[in-house]
Every structure is written in C-alpha cells, then in structure tokens.
Amino acid sequence: MPERVDLSTVTPALTLGALDGRYRSAVAPLIDHLSEAALNRARVQVEVEWLIHLTDTGAVPGAPILSDADKDYLRAVVTSFGADEIAELAEIERETLHDVKAVEYFLRRRLDAAPAVLGEGTALSAPGVAELVHIFCTSEDVNNLSYALLVRGAVTEVWLPAARSVVDALASLAGEHADAAMLARTHGQPATPTTLGKELAVLARRLRRQLERVAAAEYLGKLNGATGTYGAHVVSVPGTDWQEVSRTFVEHLGLSWNPLTTQIESHDWQAELYADVARFNRVLHNLATDVWSYISLGYFRQRLSAQGSTGSSTMPHKVNPIRFENAEANLEISCALFDTLASTLVTSRLQRDLTDSTTQRNIGSAFGHSLLALDNVRRGLAGLDVDGEAMARDLDGNWEVLGEAVQSAMRAASVAGAHGMANPYERLKELTRGRRVDGPAMREFIAELGLPDDVAARLLALEPASYTGLAAQLVADHLD
Predict the structure, then answer these.
(1) Is residue 201 part of a domain?
(2) Is 263 a member of any domain?
(3) Which long-range contacts (CB under 8 A, 24 or more apart) does 445-450 make?
(4) What region holds the Adenylosuccinate lyase PurB C-terminal domain (predicted)?
(5) Which one is catalytic: 25, 187, 309, 419?
(6) Would residue 312 show up in a list of annotated catalytic residues for this protein?
(7) What is the pLDDT of residues 341-383, one digit of tens each?
C-alpha cells in the first residue's frame, strides 16, 4: 500500500477538534475570551495593572509615580495584543518553558522600548521599575485573576446574550401559541389536554431561572503570594497594608476579593458557575427532546429552508430534526466537561497541585459546546410551524381524557349534596380504561349520571380541545 500523507504535517495546520474546525463559525466569539491567546493577553493585563496599582498606591517605597502617558503606554500593550505579540510570546516561552514567566519577560521588553516611544524622561525607564513586574506574585496570583476575567467576559459578553436570545425566542413562541390546545402525554400516554404555549412556557421559565443564577455569579480573585500568607510582601516591605493593597487591586479588576486561600484561589466560584450553566444545559436538553417529540407527532412542521436542502441521503421525503439532535449531543458533551471541571477544580492537594492547570484549559470547550447547542436550538426554533390540524385530530381521537373532568365534577357534586355520585373514579375507569371513547359515547355517559343540571350542561359542552383549564392564562400571568 502506498505511503499516505501524514495529515499532521499539512499546512496550514489542521484542527483536531470539531469546535475549531467544522463548527468554528458558531463558537468564534469565545476565542476572544477563552483561547490560549486570550489567556496570555489577560495575564499581560493583570501584570500591567499590578504594576500601575503598586505605583498608584505607593505600596513599594521608592517606586516612581507614573504619568497618564506612561499608563496609557502600558495599557496599550494589552489592547494592541495581536498576532505578532502572540508569536513573540510563544518564542519567549520556548526559552523559559514557563508560560507566566514568559509574560513577565514580554512585559519587560515593553518597558525597555518605552523611551523610544515616550522619550527618555518616562518613569518607565527609571531604575527598578522593571523589578516591579511580577513582584510578590506567584504564577497563580496572575492565573487566577486572568481566568476570572476571561470567564466573566465569556459569560457576560457571549454566552449569556446567546442564551437569552434563545429563551426569548422560546417565550415568544409560547406566547403566540398560548391557547393552542394540545393533547398532553404523561408517561407517553394520552392525558389531560394542555396548550402548546403553556408547555413551552414551562421550559422558558425554567431556563430563565437558571439564567438569573448565572447572571448573578460571583467571580473571585486573590493576590497573596506563594502560600496565601503575604510572606514575601511583609518581609520585603513591612510597612504596607498588603491585605488592603490586594483587596483594592482585585476589586479594581472588577472581581470579588477572596481573602483566605492557599497558593491557589479555591475555584469554588467556578464550580458553582459551571453547575448552573450545566443545569441550564440540561433544561435546554429537555426542550430539545420535547420539540423533537412534537415534530415526530406532527405538531410541528419544519420549514425545509431553515433546515437545509437535504433531509436524508436516501429518503428524499424526510426533513430530519437535525438542529435539535445536534443540540442534544453538544449539550451532553458540554455538561460532561462542566461536571468534570466543577468536581476537579474544588480539590487541590495541600497548598497546591497542578491538576487545575490543564483542567482549566478545557473551559473554552465546555462553553463552546453549549454555545453551539444554543445556535442549533435557535435555528431549529426559527424553522418551526405549528400544525393545528394535527393537534386537533389527536384531541378529537381521545375523548377518554375527559374522564378526569367527569369524575372530578361528580366528586364535587357529591360534596355539594348531589345523590347518586358514588364511586366516580371506578365508574369512569370502567368506561375509559384501555378503551377509546368517542364524543357521543362520552356525552351519553354524562347524560345518564344524574348530575345537577348546571354541572351536566357544563360537562356536555366540554370537548378535549376546550379542556385546557387555565393554560393560556398561566402563560399570560407567569411568563414575563
């Protein structure tokens, strides 16, 4: 057999995972937040802001005061971080074999270049300024703050807007069909009718509750040294209130200060957040499977233009519910990753181990599969049309579901003093259990019960399609 091409050598380099290949367009917004390059940019940001904070607070005696131009120059190192800087940092890391140390050396290079931009008088060229870069920091001081910034950005700027858009579309669909009567199926069997809108509203409300939890997430950070004791800080500069410097720095970054840690920030906030996102995923998975079932029952028709031109490679009549099936799979993968992240990150041996390092590099994949599922559900919902005739046929073919209404009315009439209402459940069971009952048979049965006239009239006027209780009102009252 001829030797085949080794695809790992092909240029440009091929992707290993589907998120960076087939599905890249759907998850691309996360790259600016959860990629390796984004992590390095965040590290540069933390180092820059720490240097500025130390000089602003006078925490280290002898450190110069930076001008606005000096600060702008430093912050521009972050905002201009692009392809050239990514390559340069990678080159430095090949020498240091340490990612955070590479960031330190990268920033020192920028300090060396400052006089050429700002003039020889810049405070950034003052003796000792370079030593403020990464001073009193362990790598985890930089990393925990960087990850908190990255995850917060990914959630608030990408994932939450996408999730809210899907839930809003679902809520709109629920409101539009709030009074569309539909046969319910408890345990997969015909049951008390409901409305399509009410069932969709249940899922929309569940999803919104989870979004409220995600939106309220707290992003914690710390900066307190190699074992969380401020040991190097206090020995080097004993006159500074290092807890206050740490607190104000973490809060300056927009994060919540964690005052008591080992070498690492404990990651509990991440576990809490990922559990909430995973729970949202699972409710969305429930939506996907329910909609799939409604499509199978014929309650929803799929518009071919919204699904693509090919439904099946061999059966041309088919329009497969691929959006919801793809969503299911990606939600399951996302949940598996989030569950692993949440369970792994809350444990670190003694004061530090490195299990969190490689684990956190999968945060982007966890959010990526969830974001991809959201894209599929959004497109799937947009391609649905409700088939009211199909729902009406199912309702009209299952008059036995009125058995609940009749036996409950008999019970209420008995309590009110009516005679001859004994054993209502058993009598309806005898009529309906395992049997199909049509309209005439049900009305004949009701007419022979001897119910009070007003109760009998109410039941005789009842049809499966009108037996939906307060379903439409519930949508109006409880779906914002």
Answers:
(1) yes
(2) yes
(3) 445/406, 446/406, 449/406, 449/410, 449/420, 449/421, 450/418, 450/419, 450/420
(4) 348-468
(5) 187
(6) yes
(7) 999 999 999 998 888 889 999 999 999 999 999 999 999 999 9
